[in-house]
Design brief:
The chain has about 325 residues and is of the alpha+beta class. It has 9 helices and 6 strands; from the N terminus they run αααββββββαααααα. The longest helix is centred in the N-terminal third of the chain and has 36 residues. The radius of gyration is 25 Å and the shape is flat. It has a 5-stranded mixed barrel with strand order 1-3-4-6-5. Helix content is about 50%, strand content about 15%.
């Protein structure tokens, strides 16, 4: 007889604690030290209570319950404290950057585009990395910004403003004047993306923009009307790199190498996944899909038997 397995939710409190605490810290940076001190105090109190309980002549059942319950209760606080400390340190690091002294004014800086510029209602936007500033910084500009590409290193005069959204950098930049290209985008990934754009150009209007978006998530040629059309039709997911596209890429690699052993197949599929992420870019949705694909490849490599149904759905059977 198979009994009904309990639903394992031990990781849920830790995940919720990290997400909530880091989100609160980004929204209200002043709360960082208070939250961190509260987390350390909670851990200290719980450890003291456990020591107090085990030092007394308690029953074996009470001691066993405390030993099992304590890790589940302390782990979320410890993980959240580590996340808070690292996030707070990065926020403080960004606050000491020279660009912070130029908030409200204009400065000259060098930046590396982290994404292809996209057309907006008021010009164009992209994300970039600035030396010494943690995270990505939103960059805005006119239509000239659309002539730049991801991985380009440029130097330009920028208007420095505080970010309108919670972020590690806390800044947003608006290009002023022409940007001087210090280093052009190069390498295999840049050539792949450029070749894909050139292949799509002879296609009929619409397909020339949708094909790169569906293949590698390149929406640089999308207009605001294109995005509105996809959103209104419920097809915006076609241009988003998600788990489905990663599954197709990894599955195609596994199928192509079906004539060799599982270790070689998994190795080739893993290399293809790394190359795909390098071409597409390390966007949050891409990273989530890549981590999920990696877990699937590791599961295939380990080869442990599993059930097609979650344990919480298994009822008793003969």
């Amino acid at each position: 007889m198979l009994g009904r397995a309990a639903l394992d939710l031990r990781l849920v409190p830790a995940a919720l604690a990290v997400w909530a605490s880091v989100a609160l810290l980004l929204a209200v940076p002043e709360a960082g030290l208070v939250l961190l001190a509260a987390g350390v105090a909670v851990v200290a109190v719980m450890l003291w209570l456990r020591r107090l309980q085990t030092s007394r002549k308690s029953s074996a059942r009470a001691v066993l319950f405390a030993s099992r319950a304590l890790p589940t209760a302390v782990a979320p606080v410890l993980v959240a404290s580590v996340g808070l400390a690292s996030t707070w340190l990065q926020i403080r690091r960004a606050a000491r950057h020279p660009l912070y002294a130029e908030v409200g004014g204009v400065a000259t800086t060098r930046l590396t585009l982290a994404s292809d510029p996209e057309m907006t209602k008021f010009g164009a936007s992209a994300t970039a990395s600035v030396p010494g500033v943690p995270g990505r910084v939103p960059v805005f500009g006119d239509e000239d910004l659309l002539g730049l590409r991801r991985d380009m290193v440029v130097e330009s005069s920028v208007a420095v403003r505080e970010s309108t959204r919670p972020s590690l950098s806390g800044l947003q930049l608006t290009l002023r004047g022409d940007a001087e290209i210090i280093r052009d985008a190069s390498g295999v990934t840049a050539r792949v993306r450029q070749t894909l754009r050139e292949v799509a150009e002879p296609l009929w209007p619409g397909a020339d923009r949708l094909f790169p978006a569906m293949a590698i998530g390149d929406e640089s040629r999308f207009s605001p009307a294109d995005r509105a059309l996809l959103n209104d039709s419920g097809l915006s997911h076609l241009s988003a790199v998600s788990g489905a596209i990663v599954a197709l890429v990894v599955g195609a690699a596994m199928l192509a190498m079906s004539w060799v052993g599982p270790r070689v197949r998994v190795s080739v599929a893993g290399a293809v996944l790394v190359g795909f992420v390098a071409v597409v870019g390390v966007e949050p949705s891409v990273l989530r899909a890549a981590v999920t694909g990696t877990v699937g490849l590791v599961a295939i490599l380990v080869g442990r038997a599993g059930s097609r149904w979650p344990p919480c759905l298994l009822g008793s059977s003969a």
